[in-house]
Amino acid sequence: MTGNYSEGDRRLFTRCIIEGPAILTVKGTLKEPVIVIDLCPKGAGIYCNEPLNVGEEVGVELSCFFDKVIHKKAKVVWCTEAEKGCWRMGLDFGNDLLEVGKISSRNLNVAYKQRMSSL
């Protein structure tokens, strides 16, 4: 589901559809970078090269979208294989809401250029 939602959508917040890297830590261990594909104050949608367990607590470092590094604690609320070797999952920030309005368009442009140059 992308930008437009059906009448039955249960979301409390509108998602910001973006694409850029983030760093994920699981049980204090640094994981390889993940790709964030959407953000809202309550959570994020990501792609990762390995599955995580629903309910697992993770740390997320978001830096390319903001003028400073943002650290969030999150819980995996769902995880599904998008394609072979690539997992799509939803993260919930709980009550520690993210200020999505502070996303820097300058940083998004840099992240987009980095992504395009890697293709």
Query: Which word captures the global form?
Result: globular
Q: Fraction of residues in helices? A: 10-25%
Main-sheet strand order equals 1-3-4-7-6-5
- Could you state the CATH homologous superfamily? predicted glycosyltransferase like domains
Note the run of SSEs as H and E.
EEEEEEEH
What is the name of the CATH topology?
Thrombin, subunit H
Kindly name the structural category. Answer: mainly beta
CATH architecture: Beta Barrel
Please explain how this structure is put together.
This protein has 119 residues and is mainly beta. It has a single domain (16-117), classed as predicted glycosyltransferase like domains (Thrombin, subunit H). The chain is 11% helix and 45% strand. It contains 1 helix and 7 strands. The chain has one helix at 105-117; strands at residues 16-26, 29-30, 34-40, 43-48, 57-62, 70-83, 86-92. The protein has a 6-stranded antiparallel beta barrel with strand order 1-3-4-7-6-5. A hairpin with a 2-residue loop joins strand 3 and strand 4. The longest helix has 13 residues, at 105-117. The radius of gyration is 14 Å and the shape is globular. The two termini are 24 Å apart. Residues 1-8 and 105-116 have low confidence and may be disordered.
